[in-house]
Write a structure and sequence with these properties.
The chain is mostly beta strands and about 375 residues long. The chain has 4 helices and 17 strands. Keywords: Signal.
Length: about 375
């Protein structure tokens, strides 16, 4: 992994941006692509190709051939936008694949999920106005390298909006109960290039749309099991799918016939969805999150390779446990000469009964990594 070009300095006044949003929005075409390359080289003419020493493809992307990715630095626009139109050219030899993804941010800190696999001329729509964009190039080849070149991003807006300047608190992030498996695979590379170490701490989710950058924390989850809770980044994709954003509302899911919170592999296993098959084959046991060994063994103390856990998707809102755990201000001390007040009756509510432990997971014994 190496940096191609350093990020430029950006500083634009908010008032000027608000006025400028009424104007036309120019396209972006970098004279020299700036960002982080892993297994990709920038060719003359601002194209992207696989390096000769590109690493093997991760398990999530088939495990065959060479794989590389390039994540651009954040591109600052002088106007707010809610749509990005992409244009590019490709050369794709037999056995090769090219993918382009984009995402947006209002503050260069909190990012939308990636809008993935955009074809030339396609548009990506975002729920909130943004000022920053990033693109991600993914290349895979079993023979000659593919090439992506002449990339342009054109920001557009459907109507002037003040939403980006409002200070409304985000909603509480949703939590769903799903079947999970232990990841294992020590020494292998994840979909974002991370090398798995013993007792690692990260997770895999079944959509490349929420894959964090290597070492990054753009997409985090809180996992809770038997009263213990851990926050971890999303560093891998899988195990059964690469496009199942089951945490999103049904109308935004790639599997739009399934309700929010019901993973496609669960639907395949329990309901016969898609004849019992997921992207990576027949679902032998349900698992919608892979959890690295450090969390599985050390934080949760789980025996075996499968469990049922609660997962909170933190890029979608506030962490409900952090909100509940905020400390209250201590009471003020009475004056030194004040007489002590008589004790008051205890009016605190009775404790609620403890939650029941999750049910046993049906099916055969698991192995390292589902799928």
């Amino acid at each position: 992994m190496h940096r191609v070009v350093h990020r430029p300095v950006r500083d634009v006044a908010a008032f000027a941006l608000l006025i400028a949003c009424l104007a036309g929005l120019p396209a972006y075409a970098a004279p020299q692509p700036a960002g982080i390359a892993d297994g990709i080289i920038v060719t003359p003419g601002d194209g992207f190709a696989l390096a000769t020493d590109a690493p093997p493809a991760p398990v999530a992307f088939g495990g065959a051939g060479r794989f590389g990715s390039f994540i651009s630095d954040a591109i600052a626009y002088p106007h707010v936008f809610d749509t990005l139109r992409v244009a590019y050219e490709t050369r794709v030899p037999r056995g090769a694949q090219v993918a382009l993804d984009v995402r947006a941010s209002a503050d260069d800190a909190r990012w939308t999920p990636w809008v993935i696999d955009l074809a030339p001329g396609a548009t990506a729509r975002f729920d909130q106005p943004a000022r920053f964009a990033q693109y991600r190039v993914r290349l895979l080849a079993t023979g000659d390298t593919p090439l992506l070149r002449s990339l342009r991003l054109t920001p557009e807006h459907s109507a002037p909006s003040f939403a980006a300047f409002e200070n409304e608190p985000p909603p509480v992030a949703p939590t769903f109960t799903v079947h999970a498996t232990r990841l294992g695979l020590v020494g292998r590379r994840t979909a974002n290039g991370h090398r798995i170490v013993k007792r690692d701490r990260f997770v895999a989710l079944p959509c490349v749309c929420v894959l964090s950058s290597r070492g990054g924390s753009e997409y985090m989850v809180r996992i809770t099991h038997n009263g213990r809770s851990v926050v971890a980044p999303v560093y891998d994709v899988g195990p059964w799918n690469t496009r199942d954003n089951y945490w999103d509302p049904q109308e935004k899911r790639y599997f739009s016939d399934l309700r929010q919170g019901w993973p496609q592999d669960h639907a395949a296993f329990f309901d016969g969805h898609n004849n019992g098959r997921a992207q990576h084959g027949r679902v032998r046991f349900p698992t919608a999150i892979d959890i690295a060994d450090g969390i599985w063994w050390d934080d949760f103390g789980i025996k075996g390779d499968r469990a049922v856990v609660d997962v909170t998707f933190l890029w979608m809102g506030r962490d409900p446990l952090e909100q509940a755990a905020q400390p209250q201000s201590p009471p003020e001390m009475p004056p030194a000469d004040a007489s002590p007040a008589p004790p008051s009756a205890d009016t605190s509510p009775a404790p609620s009964p403890a939650d029941a432990p999750p049910a046993d997971v049906p099916g055969e014994e698991g192995q390292e990594r589902g799928g």
